[in-house]
Structures are given as structure tokens and as C-alpha cells.
Specification:
The complex is a heterotrimer of chains A (292), B (301) and C (251).
Chain A (H helix, E strand, L loop, with lengths): L1 H31 L6 H18 L5 H25 L6 H23 L4 E2 L8 E4 L2 E4 H23 L1 H11 L1 H6 L4 H27 L1 E2 L4 H15 L4 H22 L1 H18 L13
Antiparallel strand pairs in A: 1-4, 2-3
Helix pairs in contact in A: 1-5, 1-8, 1-9, 1-10, 2-3, 2-4, 2-8, 2-9, 3-4, 3-8, 5-6, 5-8, 6-8, 9-10, 9-11, 10-11
Chain B lengths: L1 H25 L7 H17 L5 H23 L4 H20 L5 E3 L2 E3 L12 H4 L4 H24 L1 H11 L1 H6 L4 H27 L9 H14 L4 H18 L6 H16 L7 H10 L8
Chain C lengths: L1 E12 L2 E12 L3 E5 L6 H9 L6 E6 L2 E2 L5 H7 L1 E3 L12 H7 L4 H6 L2 H6 L6 H10 L15 H14 L4 E5 L7 H16 L3 E5 L3 H7 L2 E6 L2 E6 L1 H6 L1 H8 L5
Parallel strand pairs in C: 3-8, 3-9, 6-7, 7-8
Antiparallel strand pairs in C: 1-2, 1-4, 4-5, 9-10
Helix pairs in contact in C: 3-7, 6-7, 8-9
Amino acid sequence: MLDFLQSLSDGILFGATYALIGIGFTLVFGVMHKLNLSYAAASVGGAYCGLLVLKLAAGAPALVVFFCAFLAGGVIGLFVYLACFHFIPISNPLAALMATVGMLLLIDEIIVHETDGMPLNYPALFDDVMLRFGEFTLRGDLLMVFAVSIVCMAGLLALLYRTRLGLATRAVSQQAVAAQLCGIRVARVNALTFIVTGLLGGIAGAMIGASVGTLSPLLTTPLTTKGLIVTVIGGLGSIPGAIIAGLLVGGFESVLQQFRGVTERDLYVMLLLFVFLVFRPGGLFAPRGGRD
Amino acid sequence: MDFYFGLAQIIGVHTLLGLSAYIVLLTGQVSLAQAGFFAVGAYVAGMLTVIAGWAILPALAVSSLFGAVVACAVGFPALRVKGLMLVIATLAFGEAVRLFFFNFDYQVAKGGVKLGPLGGEGFRQIRYFPEHGWTTMDVMLFIWTLVALAMGLLWWFDRSRYGAVLRAVGEDELAAQSVGINLTAVKVSAMTIGGAIAGLGGGIYAHYTTHIEHASFGILLATFALAYPILGGLGSVFGTVVAAIFVQGFLVEGLRFLGDWRNLLFGALIVLAMNVRPKGFLDAPTLLWIRRLFGGRRGAA
Amino acid sequence: MALLELNGVSRHFGGVRAVDSLDLSVQQGQIFGLIGPNGSGKSTTVNVITGLFPPTSGSIVFDGRDFGTLPTHLRLGRGVARTFQNIRLFGQLTVWQNLWVAQNSPADRARRGFLSRWLGGQGGVRDEIVQLLEFSGLARKADELAANLAFGEQRRLELARALATRPKLVLLDEPAAGMNSEEIGLLRDRILKIREQGVTVLLVEHVMELVMGVTDRIAVLNFGQKIAEGTPAEIQADAAVRKAYLGGEAA
């Protein structure tokens, strides 16, 4: 029972990073009705860029690394938008999808090229802190990861619901044409969406690096799958859905890893997805179906 | 010369993989499950020749059948979800298949050696071709005969009403329904045919590499399957072949002299190609132009 | 004999009663007009008849049999074809292929085997398609991509595609939208010809010039309810109809 609770809580804390990745997928889908398959790779790429700080100034505090990852994520996000979406006509969704695959490969290869494919150590905060409640423990670094992720989500929600930019973004996501007629520059909103999701991705990548302790290019594929699964389970386009689904998937896989081992773990995560696809294809928070 | 024959083998198998995604894409469905069907075909064919001692052709026929059956079974529930949900559902299916083979052990002792799939270790010693004295050229010709058959089949579809119906469904499901087309039947049929072709390709792949493991059938392979028809254009089956030659022949082999930089260029070139030719190398106007170039005129003639 | 009968059909979207207990009876061989202001539920009626949305309540009887929850493609098999308000052709298919795709009727099935229907070449169906192309004035465009046709040609092709399914009833959803009066005259002739071939027509339209000139009987919708039904002359004289169209306190 204790094992169960322990792995569940560890998983839920780590799941906050899945939630961030899921939000990135879901936000781009909500605004542009497009899938950006390079997103998880871009997030890991942002986290790697954070490490560049350590090259310039060895021993820089972890927070500076995180912040640089955050900024780098935004820059990569804008780049992805320009390379894969801006110039490709809307009538060719397949081309944009394929371009993001190309981008996924490109980012992956840049990472492999620059690091020779070796995992790199990633700095963390509070990794020597351990809260104990009898046998039950909470790792300080995981708590930090969770807290940072929650702050980012709160920041995103504030941006979406408290600012004019957020209003414009929501308007475009509901009715792009009508929003355009109201004087909203859709291309700009799209670009900003990519920057914002990129920022989130950069921090998510950094948090994953911090909680695992290392970054490796091998992370991108499983992270892409997990992020997409979170997106579907949460309901495409739903931010609260992505948050809850992220925590759910994190907890679920951690518990199964405890009891069934690491090689079988992901198989059960896929099964969880199929259960949702069959019984609740709209996800936890399916957007309401409108007329026509 | 063997180098070129080997390259031709790779291109042939990848063409089959691309064709399996091509027919599904015609109906407007983006499926990342093709690598999964390919994996099923590879393991089934390998087990049949190695463990059961079958000949290659019946083994490939059964692997193709397995691919078709699995695709049909996936098709019914998966095609109820649309668009991006389908992308993700099929991606998850492909991953589930890969993870299944990651955990799949079935070994039989033969002549003192244990043969068969062994989880993460993979499935080694699928040596039908060398054991039966096939040269690289024999294998290459064998592969391309099958590729030509699959292409011929799809090319025939394209000239028939079935091909037009597939494309009609891909363009506008609502309008297609309104002229009496049963969407589920059409989509599942395309998925099944795609599964059969992928299963065939997987079966061949297992035999020319002689060693398969779960890691080869990941998302990367699934995206390659999609990349060929999208890069080549959905106007004609020949686009897929052109793209497979371009990717495997030019990008992978032709740029080898660039060393590490080749892989970097690879992703960048895909991004560039999609920006420059969003409808693929051979899009509809290009095909029409080619057809007119050769003086062909269909329909009224 | 009534070919199509709607008995108390309603379709609600949340709180909006797009169609509200509608009764209609379209006789075999009629050209029946369905008119009403924007948002009065005409298109929803078409969509409910073709099975795009299930009705919230009520029943639809076609050719003596209840449609129930029959999916769209099977309704077509019973003989209901349609065109769309905002033309929906298969743009990347040729004109010829657009018509070929539509040959799904039970009659086609009876005449030709499975393999010849799906995998046969274009030869076997040439005569019928050429006939349809001539009827629509598209004979010289057979090999054009549908997306490259002019607006008027696209409308004609869509009508031809509906006829290629050999329907008993064809639902025309605002076929005259965006047409000038000369084109409307040609459309009128074409609709009359369709009826001569024994096909019943349900014409949903805004353009009074067409509706009044061609229909045998008209029903008027407003806010999802039928407010009047009668011959074109009766409808033109109806006070409630005028009010609905011109606006007024009770509308």
C-alpha cells in the first residue's frame, strides 16, 4: 500500500511536466486546428539551450538555466511556426504536419550532433531535500518541478483570460474568420501562440531534465507520445483537461512501473488511451459540439 | 554492384511501406499505424520461415494477410475518430505493437540453437535468403517484383471507380455520404489493403535484414511511411516511389559524404520541400501536365 | 401518392428549435417549394431528411417506409439525393469522376456485379455519364478538375451528380443562389426536365422568381414552423407570409 502511495505521488508530481507538454499540443490545436509534432522535441531542445549557460558561466545557478531554457523554448517556438506553418497554405494540412515531422527530426539531430548523443547532467533545485512522513517521502526536486509547473499554468491561464492577447487568442480559436473580420491579425496570434507554447515547452523540458537529473535525445519520442496521449485524454483543445490528464498519466505510469516494471509500463499507458478512445473519445473535457 | 542492389532492396521495402500509407491517405486518414502493421508482418513472416520452416512466398502471403486482418480490426474502432484524434490513436496503436514485441518471447530450440523473438534482444537469424543461396541481386529482383505488383494494384485502383471513391471520401466525407458512399466500408477497406501491403513489406524487411528488433518499428518508421506519399504527392502511386528513391537513395545514401551533417540536412530538407511543394513532388497539375505531354486523354477518348 | 412525408418532425439544437413539429407531404412527381426567411429552418429540414442530424422527435416516411435512424448513405440508396447550399464537389476529381463516384444506386447494383462496379474501367458507364454531361451542358468539360470550373458550372455539376444516383426525390438546397436571371431561366427549364424524367423535386429557395415560376406547391417556414402551405398563387396572397418576409410586430 505504501509503495503504491509513494509511486503514485511521485508520478503525479512528475506528471506536471506531462501536463505542460499536453497544454502545448492542445493550445496549438485549439488555436490553429493543427498538430505540431515537433513540440516535444522543441521542448527538449529548449532545455538543452538552457545548458549553454553552464558552458559560458560554469556554476551558474539552476534558476538561470531554467530561465534560459524558458526563453530558448520561445525562440524555437517562433522558428517552428515560421518554418512549418506560416508559409504553408491552410488548405494543405498534410504538408504542415509533415513539415513538423521534418522539424522533429531536425531538432533531434541538432541535439545528437551537438552532444554526440551522450546524456548530459541537468541541474536541479532542492535535490538534497527530502520531506519524510514516516516511511512516506516527498522528493524536494519533484516538489519544485510541480510548483514551477503550476506557476507556469497559472501564468498561462492569466494570460488567456486576463489580457487582450488572451482574448484575441480565444477569439481566433473559436472563429478564425470572424476574428479576422474584427481586426485581429490571425497570423500574429498564431505566431504568439507558438511563442507562448514554446516558452512553456522550454520550462517543461528543463523540469524534466531537473527531475530525471539528465537530458538525453532519447527523451523526445516517448515525450511526444505521452504529450499526445495527455492531449487526447484531456480532450483536444482543453487546457484544464490537459492538466488533469497529465497528472493522471504521470501517476498511472509511475504506479505501473512500480508493479509491472519499466518495459511494460508504456504498454499500459497505451491501453489507458484506448480505454478513453473507446469509452470517452472526446476526452475528460470534450469541447461542446456546436451546430453544423 | 552489391551496394546498389542492397540500396534497391531498401528502397523497394520503403516503397511498400509508403504505398501502404498512400492508400489510407487517399481517404483523408492520417495513419501512424503503418509501422505497426509492418512490424506484425515482419515478426509473422520471420517466425514462419525460421520456426515453422515455411518457404518464403507462403510466409509472405500469411504476413500480408496478418497485416490486413490487424489493420481491419484497428480500422473499425479507430476510424470512428477523425483527424488529429486518428493520428494520435494510430500512433498509440503503433507504439503498443512495438511495446508488445519488446515484451514478446517465443523461442524454440532447433539443432541446439534457440531461435525466435526474444523481447528487447530482438529476433535474430532470419536467414532464409542466405540459406537458400539467393544472391543480393535475386533478392532485389524478388522485392521489386512484389513492389511492382503492389504498385500495379494501386495504379489499377486509381483508374477504377474505387480509386475515385477513395479520393472523394478524402475530399469531402459529407458529400461522399450524400451520394450514397458507405464511409466506414470505404475507409476500412483502404486501411485493410494498406495493412496487407505493410505486412508484405514487413515480411520482406525481416528477411533481408535477417535481424529485427522492436526499436526499428518506432514512430520514426511510422512517419517515414507517411513521408513518402506526402512528399511524393497523392496524385499518383509514382509519387511515392519517387519520394522513396529521393529519401533513401539521395538523402540517406547520396549525402553520406556529408557525415553527421547529412542527418541535419534531412529534416531541414523535408521542411523545405513542404514549404516549396506543399502538395508533393507530383501534384495534380503536374500529373495533368505530364499526361498531356504524352498526348494521353482519358474519359472522352 | 405521397412520396415523402414528415410527421411532426422537430430538431432542436440546445434551446434553439431549428425545426418545430413540421408536417410536410410531397406527392410523387411534384415540384415542391420550401421557402422562408434566413434561419427559418429550411436547411435543417434538408439535413434531417437526408439523415445528417437525427430528428429530435417525429418521423420521416419515404416511399411508404419509415426512415428511422437510417444513415445518410442508405437513405440515398432508397432514392433521396441532394445538392448543397454551399456547393460541395470533389474538387480534385475530374467532372467525369464526380459523376462516376455517384453511381451507387440499387439500380446500378442490380445491373452490374461488384467487381465491375468498383474495379471496372470507365467504358461500362460511358453512355449514362455522357448523357448527364450533355444534360448539364458540361460535355466539353469532362476531363477538367471540378475545382477549376466556373461557379455556374459547379452548380450544374452538383445537380448532375445528384441525378447520377438515380434518385426518386432530389432535394435542391438554394440552387439559384448567386445566379443572374438568365441562368435562373435555364435552371428552371432544367428542373422541369428533371420532373419529366419522373423525379420528384423538393426545392429550398430564396429566389422567388424561381420558386413561383416552377413549383406546384409551396410550404413556408418561419422560426422552424410551417406558417403557410398552398399553391404559388395562394402563398403570394397570404398575409402571414408577407408579414414573415417583410417583418412586423408578430413576426
